[in-house]
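Anyone up for a design puzzle?
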């Protein structure tokens, strides 16, 4: 049985896809209307295929880079099939730059859609359980703090942006260093600039 995750902000699209795919007993379907939850579901559920309409999130995207968490969660072993409810140049450009080969219109006939899903499932590389990770190394908040830290933001600025205390920023930085196996706060920056 193939596991498919539907990522779409539109309730009707998700339910339509889910009902249509559930007619075929070879699919197990999960769904979400939240990009942050989508990342976690990909990591925990390990679907064979993710079907996503990123354009449905266009109004809530603060930064196009938010989509990178979906791509990184999919990695090399999970296929990502993209649909557009509307044309969005920046999102399409970003997705194509991340290796997406095709973006389908939601108005594609169901027979073509089924063939495209089957093709994606057939070209999916096999899972390698010994290399599979069940949890991300850093949390989303730690990733954001690390990004601000590497952009040379000071602790007070990070605390204001994140809505936390300066002491909590120190705690996050310590946890990041421990998770990344960095001995001191300077090693993160020194290793980045070495040839």
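Challenge accepted. My sequence:
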């Amino acid at each position: 049985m193939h596991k498919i995750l539907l990522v779409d902000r539109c309730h009707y699209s998700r339910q339509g896809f889910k009902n249509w795919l559930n007619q075929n007993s070879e699919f197990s379907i999960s769904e979400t209307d939240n990009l942050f939850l989508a990342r976690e579901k990909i990591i925990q559920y390990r679907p064979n295929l993710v079907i996503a309409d990123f354009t449905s999130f266009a109004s809530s995207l603060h930064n196009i880079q938010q989509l990178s968490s979906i791509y990184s969660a999919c990695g090399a072993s999970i296929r990502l099939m993209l649909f557009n409810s509307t044309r969005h140049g920046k999102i399409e450009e970003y997705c194509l730059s991340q290796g997406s080969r095709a973006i389908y219109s939601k108005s594609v006939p169901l027979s073509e859609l089924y063939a495209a899903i089957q093709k994606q499932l057939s070209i999916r590389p096999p899972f390698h359980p010994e290399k599979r990770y069940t949890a991300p190394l850093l949390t989303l908040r730690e990733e954001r703090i690390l990004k601000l830290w590497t952009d040379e933001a000071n602790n007070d600025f990070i605390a204001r942006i994140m809505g936390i205390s300066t002491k909590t920023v120190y705690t996050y930085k310590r946890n990041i260093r421990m998770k990344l196996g960095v001995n001191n706060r300077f090693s993160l920056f020194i290793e980045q600039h070495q040839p």
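A detail worth pointing out: Residues 166-180 form the longest helix (15 residues).
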